[in-house]
Structures are given as structure tokens and as C-alpha cells.
């Protein structure tokens, strides 16, 4: 699987990344299967850009984020950061790199130690990395608190004294402490109230401009992802099914799954309730323990034909910078797989019980 | 008289830290076959309202006053036993998280059968048949087999369908759904919203949908009630709230939200500050510390609680600014920014 040639060296480069969690049974803990949470994911992230990773629960987006930060060990594939292979780097050698790759967590309630003051939480990275600051750690921490819109005088307060939005700012302050180059944000706003979400989204954008940060934003909310990302990758059952620039992905989505996702988002406009064209997928995402063969989306896809059940579609660039893994993409005139799409046999097209576009 | 009518409902909880005024003077009406969306942030009192209507606060320390009229019966003063008889049969609830709302030790079928037999004097066999019919009605495949499954054997979307089946099994006339799709994925959410729309049409129930998601509200609601700090701050038809909202908080909610149906804006327009603590609601207009227009009220917003006043055709707003000034701000200052690309 190759990606488009890039003009600049990517900051982060991921190739064929895999993570299989073993499933054991019985007294002897024999391995009876594996949850293929991430199953061959490749992408690049260029310095200064924001890549959005979207998908439904269980699609492997969070696992991908944790693999990049090496919080869990990959089963296969390669992760390179600034050209250096970090896939199986030892904890000791990895530690200095952790300054450069940081993570923002989803839940601002469980990701902050309730018994530590804000000063201790945000100052911890300095202590762990043994970094000396010019005017002491306290001064440095207070500067960061101010940067994320918190009062520096809150240095000695505890997390419970803050609201959800402020706690998320504390988490962001901790992330920024060591001036990282790459930040993985795993659902950074989904636990927050609507009005607070917008504050945090704006803060992330401001920080990116000010500090020249690169983000990988993992989220399930397609509207939030469109707002903050430059490029977006859609994941389904451990694989990327479509990756493109934001505008291309949202305006001319090619993969049927992306189309279905976009049309499922409720639109806050009561007038459009009736005139919207909707694609309604039936059923749930299949279990990653036993994913469907070939194209993993074929069990829910209204365009699926025989080839989708037998041949896995590769992620190929169908337009400049627009990669899709589908035999029968939408919004595309050519023939992606090289196989002549045969006319669907009788009864195969839109069987009752499979999804069909409803207007 | 309306099917459901709340008059000045107040639900206060005495705590060691002070009196929590979760719901503070809420009034609205709802007819059969209509859907009311209640929108608000966490701590705005929207869930407590629904528990209050169902009488689930009884036996707690909550202090409740005001009136709840359901089909000509007053519920606030009614006895615990009487309200229990209505609950399930006349009114029912769909909770946010079906995994914690269902009992893990009993099969899904048994939980539906139990609810049905409490209100209907029928044999287990008849009730079981009814449970299977209900599961089929909400779109669960192979209902005659799935009726014997435990909740953990269902996926999230199936579980939410089963809970809807449970809520509907006694044909309630009032259905309250508290964040019914928040725990679900977006494609499953779309299925559940479609299902709720179909079922409401078939059963002709009155539906209250409580959520923080303006998209969900816009999909389902006829009328919308926006809550802030335990009070209704704006009430109107779905078109009123989305096309010509008049409260600065409603503007803030609309500006905070990235939208897929519009060109992306450069920046979101958030509301400053955080939602108030219900122990310590700001004096005057509860929204004034976050309101960018508070200074245009000549200090009234700090001292005086604004009344919920009708501006036109059932559209009611709780704000000190005069209506024509609000409409001017919306048309000239807010709306163009929301639509700017």
C-alpha cells in the first residue's frame, strides 16, 4: 500500500500497523482467537497539519492512537517518527522521545489524579524528564496554565475544584508542558458540554497556530472532525476505508461507508427533516473477533456484489490525495479495481433487509 | 385541557452545601402525538424534570411543588401507589444507558413480561407472546429466540431497541426518552431515531425527548424547550428555535456547534464561562455572567430575574432585552456569522 509522494518528510509515518489482542479460554489460557483491533493501517502526518481519525466504536481508532504513542505494543507494522523507527524501541530509549509525542485523553475526570494539585499534575512531566527550567518549574507551569486560559493562581488547587472544561484545559496544559511536536488527542471534547466543546476546539486551534503543533485527532463526531482537521481518515473494523483532504471527503465521499456515516449525522435544521436523502445502514458493526472476509463492509453495504465477498479492495488513490478501499466507489466515474463490474444478478441488488438509500 | 400540563413545577434538593434548585418554575403543555424536545447542558435540570413527571423523586429528600396534570389527573399530590400504577402503563421512560437500566440477571424477555403482567392480568404464556411481538415491532431479528437472551448478549443498538420495547409494552400515552441515543454510534443512532419516529406515529403517544444534541432535537421535535439553570429560557416551535432564536444562550448553543450542512466556519463562536452550579445560581438572569449582551440591560440582568414572555405565536423568551432588539441582534450580528464560510 503506497501513499501519495509527499513534498516534505512526514513527521509521523505509519505503515501496515497491526494490533491483535489475543483471546484466551480455559484453564491453560490457550489462545482461541484474536481481536484484530487494528489490521494494517498506513498513513503519514506532515508537520503542522491535523489528521482526523473517525469511525464508530470498535473500529480501532483509539488503539491506533495508543500504538502511535507506544502505550501498547504493536503486533506488526512500522511506526516512524521524524524518520526514526520507533515501533519496537525499548522503554528506556523511548523515554526522551515521549517529550515530542504527547496525548490528550477523553475523560477529564479520570485522567487527572484527584490527590495531586494542578501544579503537581502539570509539573510532573518536568520532574519525570528531569528538565531544568530557567525560573523554576512553578514559573513554567504557571506560564502554561495561562497559555491554556487558566488562572496561574490556581496552581495549588485540586482537580475537583474545576469544571469539566477547565479540567480538560489542565490535561491540555500537562500535554503542552514539554513543548511536544505531535499531539494525539483521543476524543478531546466528547465528554464536554456543547458550549464548552467549542471553547476547547478553539483553544486547540489557537495552540496549533502559536506553537506549530501537529495533531492526530481521534473522534466519532464527524462535525467536530471536519471543523478541526486538514485531512480525514475513516476507519471501519481496524482498517482505513477512505482518506482524503477534508473538503474532498465531506463533499465527494467515495466509500459507501463514509456516505452512510455522513448521512446518518442528525442535521440541526428542522426544515431539512423531510427533504434529506438518507442512507440507513442496517444492523451493527460486526465483531472484530470475526470480521467479515474480503471487504469488511460488505455485510452492511447496499452496493455489495460477489467480488466484495471474495477480494479485498486495496486502499488506492482514485483522485489526487483521495484514497479509497472500495470496488464500487461513489462519486467516481472510472473503474477502481480493474475488474469489470458485472451487472448485479437478480435478487442481489437491494434485497429486503439490506440497506438502501431512502429519500 | 392539554394531555400533559406542567404548572410552575419546582424540584429542590436540600443538601449540606445548600438548596439545589434543579427545576425552578417550569411550565409547559404537550398534546398526544406531539414531540417536545428539552435541550440543555449538564446540570440544567432537564433529567430531573423527567424524573419528576414520572414521580421517581418520591421517597427521596426532594421538595416538589407545582402541578403536573396528565390526562386530567394531578400527579404531584397523588399517592405513591397511584403514581406507581400509572408508571409503565400510562407513562414510560427510555433511559440513556440500556446496559445499566436493565437487570443483568434476568433475560430481556422476563423483564418485559414482568412489566406487562404488573399492569395486565394475563398468563405468562400470553405475556411472553406479547413480549415477542414487541421485540419484533422494534426490529429485533429472530425475536422468538432473542426473547431468552440476557442484556449482555445484545449489542448496544439492540439493547436500546429492547428497552424501547419494554417502555412500549403497556402502550403508554406519554413516553419520555432521556438521551436515548447518546451512548450509540451515529449509524445506530439514525436507526433508533427512525424507529422512535415510526413508533410515535403508530402509537400516537406524546413524546418528550431530552438531549444536549441539537441535531437530534431538530430531527424529532415539534416544539423545543431550552433549559438553563433549572429554568426554561426559551420555548417555541422547532422553526422558532432554529430559524429565529431570541435568547443569547440559544444563539450561543447554535454558534458552538460545528455543522455538516453548512460551509465550515473559520472559528466556532463559543459561550464564555461554564454552566452555573445549581447551588449557587447567579442572581438576576442566571445567564448574565456569560451573556455578551448583559450590559445592554442597564444592570437589570444582575438584579432582576426576567419573566418568560411571549414574543409572537407561542414563542416565549426569558430575557431582559426587548424583543425587537433581540431580533435585530440575531439578524444582523449572529446569523451572518453562523453562515459565513
UniProtKB/TrEMBL annotation, chain A:
ATP-binding among keywords: yes
Domain ABC transporter as annotated: residue spans: 12-262
Biological process terms in GO annotation: peptide transport; transmembrane transport
Alphabetic keyword roster: ATP-binding, Nucleotide-binding, Transport
UniProt region (Disordered), positions on chain: 330-359
InterPro entries: AAA+_ATPase, ABC_transp_ATP-bind, ABC_transporter-like_ATP-bd, ABC_transporter-like_CS, Oligopep_ABC_C, P-loop_NTPase
Pfam families: ABC_tran, oligo_HPY
Protein name, per record: ABC transporter domain-containing protein
Organism: Sphaerimonospora thailandensis
TrEMBL record, chain B:
Residue intervals of the ABC transporter domain: 4-254
Organism name: Sphaerimonospora thailandensis
SMART domains according to UniProt: AAA (SM00382)
Pfam families (UniProt xref): ABC_tran, oligo_HPY
Signal peptide segment: none
InterPro entries: AAA+_ATPase, ABC_Ni/Peptide_Import, ABC_transporter-like_ATP-bd, ABC_transporter-like_CS, Oligopep_ABC_C, P-loop_NTPase
UniProt cross-references to Gene3D superfamilies, sorted A to Z: P-loop containing nucleotide triphosphate hydrolases (3.40.50.300)
Membrane topology: Peripheral membrane protein
Molecular function via GO: ATP binding; ATP hydrolysis activity
Family statement: Belongs to the ABC transporter superfamily.
Cellular component terms per the entry's GO annotation: plasma membrane
Domain of life: Bacteria
Keywords (A to Z) from UniProt: ATP-binding, Cell membrane, Membrane, Nucleotide-binding, Transport
Subcellular location: Cell membrane
Protein name: Dipeptide/oligopeptide/nickel ABC transporter ATP-binding protein
